[in-house]
Specification:
The structure is a homodimer. By secondary structure, chain A is α+β, with helices and mostly antiparallel strands. Chain A contains six helices and six strands, in the order ααβααββββαβα. In chain A, helix 1 (about 1-15) packs across helix 2 (about 20-30). The first copy, chain A, binds a DNA duplex through helix 4.
Amino acid sequence: MKQYTEEIMDILKANNLRMTKTRMALMMMFLKSEEPLSVSEMLEALSSMKRGVNKTTVYRELEQLQLKGIISTVQLGDRKQYYELASRDHHHHLICLECKQIEDIDMNEEKLLAEEKKMSRKKGFVILRHSLEFFGLCKQCQCQE
Amino acid sequence: MKQYTEEIMDILKANNLRMTKTRMALMMMFLKSEEPLSVSEMLEALSSMKRGVNKTTVYRELEQLQLKGIISTVQLGDRKQYYELASRDHHHHLICLECKQIEDIDMNEEKLLAEEKKMSRKKGFVILRHSLEFFGLCKQCQCQE
DNA sequence: CATGATAACGCAACTCAGTTGCATTTGTCA
DNA sequence: TGACAAATGCAACTGAGTTGCGTTATCATG
């Protein structure tokens, strides 16, 4: 907890961001969370704070953090945005369609990047990023079918 | 035009779907379109029809067609669903972040499927589908930067 | 061709994620 | 400590998608 706080303060200072309670709380959530977070989850968690936090504030905060490159967004097939620390290495997700559990996966992307280059050349596109997500059923949810 | 109409009637008959003007118009759009379509695009196009078409109808129609396996959905990074004919072979998209142009790409997926199997074994997940989209700048939009 | 079952439709009112304008509060630095 | 920009709250909005319910149109059957 203590070491998190210092880590966060360093990050914020380095990015010229003021230290506010919302910001601290959000950063804490991102550092602790194993999964990408949705705004509704954040609001839920923040609602326990004294006087709560307005959703506008959260959206604006996320925009800031994204602009500074501290967090990045992921689309996971439903209609919301999810957010996670950008400092994590590039990776993809395994999403259980039943229980919505999300797992990070790191796979060998050489072949994918090679394909990317080939396409890029052929089509004249500059490819800036890709999004690759896998959907299925986790071990538990398979058994309950 | 004529051959499209017959093709559509065959598809509908084969799927036990009544032949209505909305349905015909939507199928026509799907057959003609090079790109996945959003509901707003469909409504725009359908609004020129006599008496227009209600959005509820379009949503319900899309659900039907999806249920019958005639169309399928794609997520392209914004907050909407896009739809395209399911009969097209499995493929991915190249999306221009500037002009929103969408191109189909077909790439060799052997390696990807191999990775999928490996992950599946390791994590105990059954993988049912994946989503892979590339984002960047098309030839024209690169020059205008 | 008439007709009845039911699929398809329109409308109004809703949900839910995200946005905007504007007035107020708070963090930081001199 | 005070000034000023950054951060916040609130209310009202947008845009995608949904729901309930009453009406209309398609089509198999006679």
